[in-house]
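Deliverable D5.2: sample structural annotation.
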Amino acid sequence: MRAFMLIPLAVCIYEIASLILPLKLPLWGRILSYLILLSGLLKGFLYRRTPLGLDIIEIPYGGALLISIIFNFIIVAFFILLVKDAAFILWKIFLKIKFPGYYASLFAFSIALCTTLYGTYEGLKIPPVVTHEISIKNLGREFDGMKIAMLVDIHADELTNYKAVQKIVDKTNALNPDLILIPGDFVDGSVRARSKDLAPIKNLKAKFGVLGVTGNHEYYFDFQGWLKEIQNLGVNLLNNEKVILTSGDSKLIIAGVPDITGKMMGFTAPDLEKALKEAPEDTPVILMDHRPDAAKENAKHKNIALQVSGHTHGGQMPGIYQLVKRANKGFIRGWYDVDGMKLYVSPGTSQWNGFAFRLFDPSEISLFILRSK
């Protein structure tokens, strides 16, 4: 068994002991419950290693959704059962009457199931548009009111499939943006399996085009293949590069660096100095960096007015939120002022099929409206 499956297996065994056994189901009911719970572990076996990196074993949408729901239930129930069992310990210490294990487990099951279904729905629904106005120092008057749409963490896969990506594209185009930014994590899966699902992004339309950078997931699934495919879909991937937008006498720089995963896997490392080499002075810069981690370092470049990032998925749910925040140097979602540079961390435009779930953490299509100071 793969080593990374041992923790989910241990969680399943804990849930069998804390949730299923106290319900006092008949034998067939217990066996069925065990099988359903353990089937959630199949999610980890959908990934397989190939010479080009990881790939995902194809299963029908309904099967992928069912496995995701069960896996999500395992995660959600774990946190709820920790609360239940903490209550059990306190009950045994302070009260002399018998703990109502059956009713406590039934209540925990009901809360976990309802939360799972709601969170899965939130994770898979087409995101709303969230508008942000931002003042940019030295922004030329021709760019005042400029509309920039941002999609990030699309993660095209068997759940965020062709139909879902097309709806995201249609919703974005309806905003009539001047520019579209996609700071990484376009896909989950091989070019062979996922190119059709990502294909609708070729229909994105904006006056200044579509710019992007790589996220960590592009490197997991045939990086060279996806690099070519994404660019063939009309996205100009900035690899330690910049684009200077011009309108009348005004200029605006859009810069982009690849994800740090590239350096770890033998590809190009992020190099902001290279990206901004010979950039015109006093011209504001909007930087795409998939992860928010390097914001403090990036902020040393005084011309960077705004960094846009994703990667964190907003934490996805309470409990996990705190862990994700710590892993990303305190940046999790929303606006931050980093030594004078504005940072916006998007919660993401879609879901990640490793945990297709959101609770109190809605996804979004971000729309930035630039204002001159």
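Annotation notes: Residues 3-124 form one domain. DSSP finds 13 helices and 14 strands in the chain.
The annotation will be released with the project's public dataset once the embargo ends.
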